[in-house]
Specification:
The chain has helices at about 35-45, 50-60, 70-95, 105-110, 135-150; strands at about 5, 15, 20-25, 115-120, 125-130. The protein is mainly alpha-helical and about 150 residues long. The chain is elongated, with a radius of gyration of 24 Å.
Length: about 150
């Protein structure tokens, strides 16, 4: 089997004349990086898509489709992807570097389930925490970063 494609494997393989086999794969992208930089970038991303799929399926109920019909299931998946993107943006832009690797369950227990009282008074939203609550400083910092994002001062 001289130089050519050898098809006994479930993936494309190139076999040279000296019987050395090379696994072939391609990278399709709209990025304008030079070839070597593109390959390096692609290899650095290795494993991230599996992590994203795990979060979508486990944390955002993407693995529990509501019906047997394609349309509603596609909408369900699109909503899960939107929630994932909003969660990623909020972690990066509002909560800070230490929150980026955290999954939704950790965020729920550390941020969403903070004991306090939410009040609405004179068109203001107020969160009341116990005096000296350990979450006060990072809640205030996150609120300031969100305010900057909404005001365009980013």
């Amino acid at each position: 089997m001289g130089g050519g494609l050898f098809c006994a494997y479930p993936f494309p393989v190139l076999e040279t004349s000296d019987r050395v086999r090379y696994k072939l794969h391609g990278i399709v992208t709209n990025r304008t990086l030079p070839g070597e930089a593109l390959i390096k970038w692609s290899r650095e991303r290795c494993g991230k898509s599996e992590q994203v799929h795990s979060v979508l399926k486990e944390d955002l109920a993407g693995g529990k489709l509501p019906t047997g019909d394609f349309g509603p299931n596609a909408a369900w998946w699109a909503i899960a992807v939107l929630a994932y993107n909003l969660n990623s943006a909020m972690k990066r832009l509002a909560l800070g570097e230490s929150w980026i690797p955290k999954r939704l369950k950790a965020i729920r227990f550390q941020l969403i389930c903070v004991a306090g009282r939410v009040l609405s008074h004179a068109r203001d939203l107020i969160i009341r925490l116990a005096a000296g609550h350990p979450s006060f400083d990072w809640l205030l910092a996150a609120r300031r970063r969100m305010l900057c994002l909404f005001n365009g001062a980013g």
